[in-house]
Design goal:
Layout (H helix, E strand, L loop, with lengths): L2 H16 L4 H11 L2 H7 L9 H10 L7 H10 L1 H10 L9 H9 L6 E6 L13 E6 L2 E5 L7 E7 L11 E8 L8 H9 L6 H17 L3 E3 L6 H7 L5 E7 L7 H13 L3 E7 L20 E5 L2 E6 L5 E4 L6 H23 L1
Parallel strand pairs: 1-5, 1-7, 2-4, 4-11, 5-6, 7-8
Antiparallel strand pairs: 2-3, 8-9, 9-10, 10-11
Helix pairs in contact: 1-2, 1-3, 2-5, 4-6
Amino acid sequence: MSAAETADRYRRWAQTEARGSSGIYERLALAVAEDAAALALLELMEPAKRQPNLLFGALRWNDVDVADPPVALSRLHAHPEAVLEVMRTRRTQTNEVARCATLLPALAQLPGPVALIEVGASAGLCLLYDVWRYHYTGPGVDHWVGPADSPVTVSCAVDGRVPLPGTVPDIVWRVGLDLNPINARDPDARRWLQCLVWPEHHDRARTLCAALDVAAAVAPRIDRGDLVFDLPRLLEDAPSDATVVVMHSATLSQVEQHQRDAFAATPARHGAHRLGAEGHKVLPRLAHQIPEGTDVNGRFVVSLNEHVLALAHPHGRTLTWLSNLTGGVQLAARVAVDGSRDERAGADQAR
């Protein structure tokens, strides 16, 4: 990735990700794109590490005022190693609990009980679907679900024929998988996650703090491992009498396309489901299912196995259902299960 390509990445990110959500980060990303010295420093990092979120989180970790781009860039020029060291040793592990609200409608439609595996689990907040309280709003919609005494409530504005859940699923087994698991009890880890919350998003920062307190008490299991090589082991360990679901959100963009494809094919081979939310370019083979003319910029594509269901705000604020089939979730689940049965049957015959 050349300096020009990095600059273009920051401009596009400012326009499609930050605009309308964080004026501070929009201005800072555009300033980085025009700063030759900053681009030269980013060239010292591998391409996957040149992400705006990682750079901006590293600046905030060093107590840099990101609201003032000239000041932020001046600090970067004066103390580059302090910022680059954070970028080398840490990852963008944003643990956005509100993403649970965008995946819960599909998860709750699958037959229970559920065995849950999350790849890119960070501190494990998105393993605790049955712990949070959810509030769905929209035209004619005021829907609550989840334990009323939960210390965390996440709100999501919905549009379209969203199959709003009547209850949260019965999760009987859960485990996370991450290259660098985060301990919710670790003050440094907690501070890093707070540095990844965008400056103006005070509600997200408060929710993160409360959710980390819960995770610190619950201590969900999170294994250190790779999403391709170590996932099969977890799938084999999952209870056979539960519906196994492999979940992910904003995870696959951090690995190469061949790794994404290898990961996406793994759950079905083990009779499990894949449910995720990623940028629309992450799994390009699903793009043809999105209705023509739909604005997908800045939104995640929610998919179950090989079936696109919805578009979601990256921070879980909105969910737009795309499936015209009332049983869209069941259809996607049935096709995956039937396909895995056929594959297993073919393998048995080959033996």
